[in-house]
């Protein structure tokens, strides 16, 4: 389907596809089975400008529109979530720094993020505060010249590998209004790296626990005003959710491509599986659902590029595309039969990676809560 992309958008999409298919795709299964974040692949993507696509050129970024960034994430995820996931989180961190950072903070951090010299992480989730982010307990107590951070974050993508982490911490007891964002460099005393999660999918990424013990950060590390943490987080997550949706479109497309190849090759009952109409109809539904999600993702990207808030649409895109990818990858496993259940074939990996996207950056139940609230109000 032609989405009326501009020449510039097509050129960057081609660059991302070439990198994804030539460099990443041949490694996809080993990235998954090794379960180790490959910093070199991140740096290689960054050297092509793929780790800062929508960041302003003033800060070393590509200065491209948001839709272009979504095309890049879709292309990378089609090859491997082990590369798309870290870049998606890294880029997500650029939005609040650009929007809420002081000039000093932007100058010190964003150009290094653009080149890939620095990787970033976003630390919101805690053991007792997952969906209910306003309940977070990590404290930032005011002391002379700065704050002392104490608490634990869990499931942090790029955690431990990132040179800079945006940490959400409590500066006052007033629920969501008492949260403040901080920029914490990796080598800060009292900033400990905890265990790496053994996850079902996204295995080539680091998803770690971060532990803060009397971790002193100066006043200059505060990102935005005290109490603005929820706004800072939302400025990252609202856009980030569309990128999760774009990644899910890429994962679903990869599942369809693998399934079609298999159906054309494998024979049963004296004919190719592709000749069974029941299986043809499954492929038709998978392709239609993927295209519908792609259209919603691109439309949401265009709303963001037009300066519209698109917060509800971002939730819709995330909800629809990630549920779609779960269904499409489940069907792809079915089309492969026993081979789909085997880790020797890529659809098992795609199925596991699709599941994670229904959970991170706000579960799909929470997206439904947000969408319904927009239509029905809070009560
Ligand atoms: C691979 C991966 C990477 C991640 N990366 C990051 C990261 O980089 N940074 C970060 O901060 N976090 C990250 N997370 C954490 C993620 O955002 C949380 O797991 C998610 O928000 C859900 O929180 P929880 O796990 O505590 O589940 P819970 O909040 O305990 O939810 C459990 C279940 O209850 C449902 N539920 C909760 N509240 C409601 C409600 N009001 N109505 C209906 N249903 C509800 C949920 O949808 C879910 O099904 C990551 C998670 C994963 C799996």
Could you explain the architecture of this structure?
- The protein has 379 residues and is of the alpha+beta class.
- The protein has 3 domains: 7-118, Acyl-CoA dehydrogenase/oxidase, N-terminal domain (Butyryl-Coa Dehydrogenase, subunit A, domain 1); 121-227, Butyryl-CoA Dehydrogenase, subunit A, domain 2 (Beta Barrel), CATH 2.40.110.10; 231-376, Butyryl-CoA Dehydrogenase, subunit A, domain 3 (Up-down Bundle), CATH 1.20.140.
- The chain is 52% helix and 16% strand.
- Strand 9 and strand 10 form a beta hairpin.
- It is globular and about 80 Å long.
- The structure holds flavin-adenine dinucleotide.
- Flavin-adenine dinucleotide is lined by residues 89, 122-125, 130-131, 155-157, 199, 202, 207, 356, 359-363, 365-366, 369.
A few lines on this structure:
With 379 residues, the protein is of the alpha+beta class.
Sheet of most strands: 4 strands, mixed
The first-level CATH class of the largest domain is given as Mainly Alpha
- Looking across the biggest beta sheet, what order are the strands in? 1-4-5-8
Helicity level, as a percent range?
A: 40-55%
Strand-residue fraction? Answer: 15-25%
Radius of gyration: 21 Å
- Write down how many β-strands occur, each being a DSSP E stretch of 2 or more residues: 10
Amino- and carboxy-terminal Cα gap: 41 Å
Provide a count of the helices.
Answer: 11
Give the number of domains: 3
Q: Ranges with pLDDT <50 over ≥5 residues?
A: none
Any ligands, ions or cofactors bound here, and which?
flavin-adenine dinucleotide
Shape label? globular
CATH topology of the largest domain: Butyryl-CoA Dehydrogenase, subunit A, domain 3
Briefly note the structural class of the backbone.
Answer: alpha+beta
Classified in CATH, the superfamily of the largest domain is Butyryl-CoA Dehydrogenase, subunit A, domain 3
